[in-house]
Amino acid sequence: MVAKNPWLVEANLIGGAWVGADDGATLAVVNPATGEGIGTVPSVGRAEVARAVAAADAAFPAWAAKTAAERAALMLKAVEVIRANAEDLAALLTLEQGKPLAEARGEIAGSAAYLQWFAEEARRVYGDTIPSPWADRRILVIKEPVGVVGAITPWNFPSSMIARKIGAALAAGCTAVVKPAELTPYSGLAWGLVFERAGIPAGVVNIVTGKPAPIGDEFIENPAVRKVTFTGSTAVGRQLAGRATTALKRISMELGGNAPFIVFDDADLDRAVAGAIASKFRNSGQTCVCTNRFFVQAGIYDAFAAAFAAAVAALKVGDGFEAGVVQGPLIDGRALAKVEGFVADATAKGGRVLTGGARHALGQTFFQPTVIADATAEMAFARDEIFGPVAPLFRFETEDEAVAAANSSEYGLAGYFYTRDLARAFRVAERLKFGQIGVNEGVITTEVAPFGGVKSSGFGREGSKYGLDDYLDVKYVCIGGV
Ligand SMILES: NC(=O)C1=CN([C@@H]2O[C@H](COP(=O)(O)OP(=O)(O)OC[C@H]3O[C@@H](n4cnc5c(N)ncnc54)[C@H](OP(=O)(O)O)[C@@H]3O)[C@@H](O)[C@H]2O)C=CC1
Ligand SMILES: O=C(O)CCCC(=O)O
Q1: Which residues form the Aldehyde dehydrogenase domain (predicted)?
Q2: Which of 63, 97, 149, 242 sits in a 20 to 30 Å window from 275, CA-based?
Q3: How far is it, in rounded angstroms, from Cα 400 to Cα 270?
């Protein structure tokens, strides 16, 4: 099955050619569900990345000069290619990432939706005219593509993270070099095949794989790269943002989260439990908008804890290709150790395991879906991103207390709360310091809405009409002698 996936390509795309590393170096890629090798990808150095940037730079004038409708038409062809091959692309995603096939299908559908959205938005990059303070001059504002984009993406959504960056870049008229995550490079490289089949010109999108430092360094230090867009950890994002800012490049940073999920006494219990499962356990908790901390009001705490723990205990864990599985493996041993560490820290400080709490009998990197009651602010997950299937339940008494605790994080990506009180819905949505808020909803990501955070979760927005702004420069034109 592995070798037969027609979208699995073991080369990089540079200037329209599929190539290996200059020195032949490769990286091995492993299926996290089985520990078996899938294949290899090139491990390129700065020279290959510099050639990819040069290819993107050379392709930029012609791509930017196309009308928006021409760019959109090519992007929509890519959407057709994805939809026609969704099953194979989803299988490739599950193979290297581990997520259940149903979730992989959802991600591929989401990738097509992002690309379609931005293809449609390409034709709506409006400028402005501004009333002039001078009788004989006119003031126009036009928008232009920023130029070559360097995109760095993570392993948790190896397809859709590329879609929402490259969709916006292509629509705006930018060209790009993409660096997918080392752990999940094949879904990234498959985008190269998609764009080729759609007829997007050589050099417009280039895809390189390898160790992160040389690729990141080239993106930052090569003057032809005008923008760096990154999704990943706050630690790496902070470092890249600092250096890219010094190099005076445009940057977008989608970084870590520590999402609160507040259940007020007046919540619809069944709805809150369903939302909690979806929000926490999607992708085995490896989503930056996954709930990290559940705050449950005292009056509903026991009922919520019991119903939630029962639902969590029923989640089927296994290989993502197996029917009925809703929890796949964690991405690697490091992630597994990190999750174990959170549980050990919590139980040592008085946390009560309601279900799960240990490695799964399946071995590999499987971890039992876990609920921990009696969580306190002293436990590590109160502060740090878990990125795994562990749900801590904190107890609170008042709305003020819940909002303060939710906002006490350095992160500000997504927050959720459940209430049937309309006034509270508005009030708490406004008081929570997060870029995205779900009210009575646990999963809110869509291509039509702005995705992004505040505080240490970064800046910039992806998806929606706002998603194009990050790829456009504003130019003021003053016409005199009128
Ligand atoms: N916001 C989000 O969506 C994500 C958050 N995270 C958080 O980060 C934690 C660690 O995950 P991890 O995969 O290590 O995240 P990283 O931030 O290390 O990886 C994200 C991307 O950045 C690349 N990268 C890493 N270091 C550099 C560098 N110096 N220069 C340029 N690019 C670099 C990675 O490359 P490579 O793959 O080659 O290392 C990958 O493509 C997770 O447990 C989670 O808490 C992780 C992923 C996504
Ligand atoms: O974890 C991320 O970085 C993206 C989440 C995408 C989604 O919510 O579907």
Answers
A1: 18-477
A2: 97
A3: 24
Are 115 and 167 contacting, i.e. CB atoms less than 8 angstroms apart?
Answer: yes
Catalytic amino acids? 254
Domains, the chain:
12-255+456-478 (3.40.605.10), 259-446 (3.40.309.10)
Q: H-helix or E-strand containing 338?
A: helix 333-348
Which of 365, 378, 360 is CA-nearest to residue 335? 365
ipTM, 2 decimals? 0.96
Rounded CA-CA distance 141/134 in Å is 16
Torsions phi, psi for 207 (to 5 deg): -130, 125
Residue 473 identity (one-letter amino acid): D
Nearest 5 degrees, angle CA 69-CA 73-CA 77?
A: 165
The Cα angle at residue 450 between residues 449 and 455, in degrees rounded to 5: 145
**From ligand 1's centre to the CA of 270, what distance in Å?**
35
Give the number of the atom of ligand 2 that is nearest the alpha carbon of residue 288.
Answer: 1
Instruction: Give pTM, 2 decimals.
Output: 0.97
Distance 329 CA to ligand 2 centre (A): 17
- Residue 259 CB less than 6 A away from ligand 2: no
Reported as type and span, the H/E element at residue 179 is strand 175-179
Strands 259-263 and 291-297: parallel
Q: Is the CB of 216 under 6 A from ligand 1?
A: yes
In which band, very low, low, confident or very high, does the pLDDT at 3 lie, cut at 50, 70 and 90? low
